[in-house]
Amino acid sequence: MCRSIKTLRPPAMPEEATEDEMRAAALQYVRKVSGFRAPAAHNQEVFDRAVEAVTRATADLLEGLEIRGGTRRAS
Asked: Which InterPro entries match (predicted)?
């Protein structure tokens, strides 16, 4: 769907994804879904809330994933 969103879990990334990397992926997702690169002023608040919600969901997902071999990401 969004080719500019990169995989944020090991082994694709050698280190744990940063908050900035998760937010960048969330921003790309919200842009794609909404169809807006930059929302109009009257949509900015809901756009920003969506980015924050997707960022939190991404962090929760990455923290909960079990990587092959039974190891879990360190938090």
From this structure: DUF2277
